[in-house]
Amino acid sequence: MVAYLKVRSGPDTGRRFRLDPLHTLHVGRDANCEIMLTDPVSSRYHAVLFHEDSHWQVRDTNSRNGLLVNGQKTDHATLQDSNTILVGTSELQFFDGHGDSADSNNREQTIVLDRPISGGLSSSNFGPLDPLRKIADVGYLVDLYQLSLQLIGSGDPDSVIQIATELLKDRTQADVIGFMWLGEDGKLQPEYVFPSDAAEKIKLSSELTRRVTNGGEAFWFKEESTSPGQKTQWTDAICVPLQHGEEVAGVLHLYRNDHRFNERHFELALNSGQLLGVALSRARRTAALQVERDRLFTRNAETNNLIGESPPMMRLKSKIERVGKANGCVLIRGESGAGKELVARDVHQHSGRRERPLLSVNCAAIPRDLIESQLFGHKKGSFTGADRDHIGWFQQAHTGTLFLDEIGELTLEGQAKLLRIMEGHPFLPVGGVDEIRVDVRIIAATNRDLAEFVREKRFREDLYYRLSVFELHVPPLRDRGQDIELLMNHFLEHFSRQHARPSIQFSEAAKKRMLSYAWPGNVRQLRNVIDSAIVMFDGNTIEADDLGLRDAGVEVTDTLRLDVWEEKLIREALDRCNGSIPEAAKRLGISRATAYRKIADFDIEK
Ligand SMILES: Nc1ncnc2c1ncn2[C@@H]1O[C@H](COP(=O)(O)OP(=O)(O)OP(=O)(O)O)[C@@H](O)[C@H]1O
Hints:
CATH class of the largest domain: Alpha Beta
Helix content: 25-40%
Strand content: 15-25%
Protein name: Nitrogen fixation protein VnfA
Keywords: ATP-binding, DNA-binding, Nucleotide-binding, Transcription, Transcription regulation
Bound molecules: adenosine-5'-triphosphate
Number of domains: 5
Pfam family, one: Sigma54_activat
Number of strands: 24
GO molecular function: ATP binding; sequence-specific DNA binding
């Protein structure tokens, strides 16, 4: 219940002066003033404060620049709680002390120091001429530096709190440290208390809590027992907001049982609180995004893992590992739905860019006349319909990977720009004047015969060679034998869970049908067939006819694609010649070199 003045602005910001009602207190620059300010604009004896008729009064003592109370120039005023007094350039705020009473009746929490927090790290109050203090300052900055480094490197909220606790405990020798999180109801919830059985020690008056959480002020205060013989729970406490921008997300408490904190502890806690506010908000946002991402993946039966243990898939996986670590462009070939995008993700995951963005663009899904502006960006008004600036996919993927699906659909102008970027040149967004330079790894995919496109002059030859520094061929599902069963089980498990039909199974005949089917639409088709069978049919067993595979067993004879037949013939020839390539080449009427090249192209086991 002690009235006090707090310096809100000016050189003495943060200092507090207890007001003793038994004495008249002088305010000014003179060393004899009880409330001594270092503000050069204040007079030596600027004003006096005294307690009369149960109220605190302030009177100007012929100051040079006058006295303002609540913004009004005055010679004399009776002070009310929270009134402000301007002395020179220093704003002092008066508190009658009634608001700070502790929740407990016989204890008093007296503020030693407080500090409004407004963006940026606060500067230390230590005297600039004290060399020992300067050395101490360096230690304190090193602590903050180390804390920042560790917080930057940590993405998970629990470890962020743990890192900060360890540092603060060590540096301040606090007996108890508590992190309180501000719940949606505006109440503080103990999120983490160290040691864990000390939660009951965290007792802060509701008024102080309000000022920390609403006003973003940090406090250092001591608790004094007002009833003789009663032992207090702690002697000193520091309470600082965890602030991110304008928002206070929580509060950090530090308690000491016997000894006192010092100013350096207060400064360290205060600045750590600001770092923590930012780090925790960021870690929580990242965690929320991760959960959301996993949820979307699960809902769509997507997995980041390439399911498959067949020999061609095992070979593909080992190539992905090697290609991932290298840094060149990758061209992924394979039929539609075979898993090219998944392979691209896997390459990215195995690369040094795995923590950076991977963006996927389907060039076939964007109207041809918009591809360029989508990829490279455009400026508002650069063409009809460009009603705002667009940051192109290349720029968005900067430092990461850009997956260009159906690359064969890229216009010739787009191809020319792409080639220039790949050669390390900057590019101009559509309608832009400032050149942009990006560092992006390109993974392209196609289910077309790009070499054929090159011959038809629909695709630039130089771009083709640049893109295919590394080539990966995703084998069609029909060539993956045992993988069909693995994928069947994976999708059955996923969709039966998603559609809440846990006991649904395939009949033996249904399994057989799926295992012998040619799957022209590859894994995507298998996934869709299982999804709709689970949705459409009642009962616990999916029969062969429920799968809707009317052309089941037809193999690939329904296609006239030359490459499909070519691959089939090579496989057949190898089978008939017991795997001997020279023999097979003879039977096929092609040279050995061509046979070797085609076997590699089609990724046929030798
Ligand atoms: N090996 C695999 N393991 C698990 N899921 C797979 C696998 N291969 C493909 N899928 C799934 O099949 C679907 C199609 O895969 P993806 O989109 O990667 O094929 P794509 O070859 O890129 O097709 P398109 O050429 O039509 O773009 C996706 O849902 C993908 O998650």
